[in-house]
Design goal:
mainly alpha, 10 helices, about 210 residues, two-stranded antiparallel sheet
Length: about 210
C-alpha cells in the first residue's frame, strides 16, 4: 500500500515530466497538416500558407506558453529534494493538462474566430497554470523554502505562477468583446512577469 509518506525517485519524476513536455510541444507542430501538391498547385503557395495562418498562430502561442510552463517546472524541480505521494499526484494532474494542449490548440486554431473553442483553449492553459501554482504552494511548504530563499522570493515565486492562469482567464471575456484583444492577451504574460522580476530584484538589492 502506498502511503502519503511514500518517497519516489526525484530524478525519474522530473525526467518523465520533461519527456511529457517535449512530446506535447512536438505534437503541436504535427497538428499543422502539410498541404497536398494538388492544393498548392490550385491555390498557390502564398494562399495555402495564408489559409494555415490560424494554425501557425496557435502553434507559436502554445509553444511559447508551454516553454514558460516547462521553465517554471524545471526551476521548481531544482528546489525539490524528495517526491512524496501528494507531490507525485499534483505533478500527474499537471501533465494531464499539458498533454491536452495539442488537442485544445488544434481545436481552437481549426475553428479560428469561434469564441467557444477559444474559451476551451484558454481554460486548458489556465488549468495548467493553476496546477503549477498548486505545486509551487505545496513545494514551498514541504521544502520550507522560506528558510533557503527568503519570504520575498517565495512570495514572488507563487505570485509569478499565478500570472499565466489569471491572464488566460481574463482573455476569455476579452475575446468575447474583441477577438483581437483576446488573442494577443498572452503577450501580457511576458510583460507582467518581466516587470515583476525587475521589481523583485530591486527589492532584494536594496
Amino acid at each position: 500500500m502506498i502511503t502519503s509518506e511514500a518517497k519516489f525517485p526525484t530524478d525519474r519524476v522530473l525526467y518523465f515530466s520533461d519527456a511529457i513536455f517535449a512530446i506535447a510541444i512536438t505534437l503541436l507542430v504535427l497538428e499543422i497538416k502539410i498541404p497536398t501538391t494538388t492544393e498548392v498547385e490550385a491555390l498557390g503557395t502564398m494562399k495555402v500558407l495564408q489559409n494555415l495562418m490560424p494554425r501557425f498562430i496557435g502553434y507559436v502561442v502554445s509553444f511559447l506558453v508551454a516553454a514558460l510552463f516547462w521553465r517554471a517546472h524545471m526551476t521548481l524541480g531544482q528546489r525539490i529534494t524528495s517526491v512524496d505521494n501528494k507531490l507525485l499526484w499534483i505533478n500527474i494532474w499537471l501533465l494531464l493538462f499539458v498533454v491536452l494542449m495539442p488537442f485544445s490548440t488544434a481545436f481552437y486554431s481549426n475553428n479560428f474566430g469561434m469564441s467557444g473553442t477559444f474559451n476551451f483553449y484558454c481554460l486548458n492553459l489556465a488549468a495548467i497554470g493553476l496546477t503549477l501554482y498548486w505545486m509551487n504552494v505545496y513545494v514551498e511548504k514541504k521544502e520550507k523554502l522560506v528558510n533557503s530563499m527568503g519570504k520575498s522570493a517565495v512570495t514572488w515565486m507563487k505570485q509569478r505562477a499565478l500570472v499565466v492562469p489569471i491572464i488566460f482567464v481574463i482573455c476569455i471575456p476579452l475575446g468575447n468583446i474583441s477577438p483581437v484583444l483576446g488573442r494577443i492577451g498572452f503577450v501580457l504574460i511576458f510583460v507582467v512577469q518581466a516587470i515583476g522580476d525587475r521589481y523583485f530584484k530591486k527589492r532584494v538589492n536594496k
